[in-house]
Design a protein that fits this description.
This protein has eleven helices and twelve strands. The protein is α/β, with parallel strands linked by helices. The chain is globular and about 65 Å long. It starts with 18 loop residues before the first strand and ends with a helix. The longest helix has 20 residues.
């Protein structure tokens, strides 16, 4: 979710999906988001064990990925997809993007996160709670208390400090919108966004721009805003030479987000696509999920890296809305957000 380089991101998004190439080599195309970045040796091992060449095609943020899958469902751009998350899953399911299949070892943990109405088509691969993150050094240097709650962000001392993502184009942006709906209800969330807008909110199209360009502790190093909508796992990747993270997730602001994998309807190489879904929840892959993709594994019994245990434990209490409520309200909430924030 939070990684910035995708393996295979340079692959074209045009043309058909997998099968066998002119030389008879078996190939399966995995369509994913820009944050899919497992160790290269994992993919090489998959090819050695199965005889299947895995081609990775990146398609932007999780929201952009979902849109692309919906638009190309009749002639899919791949065989299997990973990265549609719980905020967008109902749309993909309603549009018939995925065909029936769930991982052979889905009962080892992933199925506890299965989406309502999609238990037979989607398998959970990871969990990545969306939370506000703060640049702790920025606040310490200025003697300003860090915010702790959503309400704090509307206070004068935090004016012009927050950058968030557009919920219409970004999965963490949508998750943050849902967090405000869960907190303030359908009758109160728009007023909350009105107050955020009045307090200098900045909105970007996606996570990479918000975190790496606008966030003061992002990888770009030139951001002006010390509060960003990111993930509970993000602080684990800001640990300095002193062993301390430069950022902190505000755990009272989190919203639970789950990412899924599934075989695409009308895929050309269904059998090998199923092998990819199984691979994504295998012990080998799940053991690398945290350190390579900044998310928590969906499989039970997987030990988190030591840095995560210290700086980024999985939040115990994250906001969630029932899938049927998200399905019924998502488009309406996003449209109201657009009118409120964009004008």
């Amino acid at each position: 979710m939070v990684a910035t380089v995708a393996l295979g991101a340079g692959c074209s998004l045009v043309g058909g999906s997998g099968g066998s190439d002119a030389g008879g080599e078996r190939k399966v195309v995995l369509v994913t988001h820009n944050s899919f970045s497992p160790p290269k040796e994992l993919l090489e091992d998959f090819q050695k064990r199965t005889g299947v060449k895995l081609e990775v095609r990146a398609s932007g943020d999780g929201g952009a990925l979902t849109n692309q899958l919906v638009l190309t469902k009749s002639n899919p751009i791949g065989d299997v997809a990973f990265g549609v998350d719980s905020t967008f899953a109902s749309r993909a399911l309603d549009e018939g993007v995925f065909q029936p299949y769930r991982a052979a070892e889905g009962d080892r943990g992933p199925q506890r996160y299965a989406p309502q109405g999609g238990q037979d088509r989607l398998t959970a691969v990871d969990v990545g709670d969306v939370c506000l993150n703060v640049d702790t050094g920025w606040f310490q240097q200025r003697g300003v208390a860090e915010p702790k709650t959503l309400d704090d962000l509307t206070q004068p001392q935090y004016k012009d400090l927050l950058v968030a993502e557009d919920p219409a184009t970004s999965s963490p942006g949508l998750a943050f919108l849902l967090a405000t709906v869960a907190k303030y209800g359908e009758n109160g969330y728009a007023d909350y966004w009105t107050r955020l807008r009045g307090n200098g909110l900045k909105v970007t199209s996606g996570w990479e721009e918000a975190y790496n360009q606008d966030f003061s502790a992002g990888t770009g190093g030139k951001g002006q805003r010390p509060i960003v909508v990111s993930y509970a796992s993000s602080p684990a990747f800001t640990i300095g030479d002193d062993g301390k993270p430069r950022t902190k997730a505000l755990l009272d602001t989190c919203y639970r987000q789950v990412e899924y994998a599934g075989v695409l309807a009308n895929a050309k190489n269904v059998d090998d696509a199923r092998k990819v879904v199984d691979f994504l929840v295998s012990p080998e892959f799940q053991a690398k999920v945290a350190e390579s993709m900044y998310v928590y594994p969906a499989r039970e019994g997987v030990t988190l890296p030591e840095a995560w245990q210290r700086a980024a434990p999985l939040p115990e209490r994250s906001a969630e809305l029932p899938a049927d409520q998200v399905k019924a309200g998502r488009e309406r909430w996003v449209e109201q957000w657009r009118k409120t924030v964009r004008g």
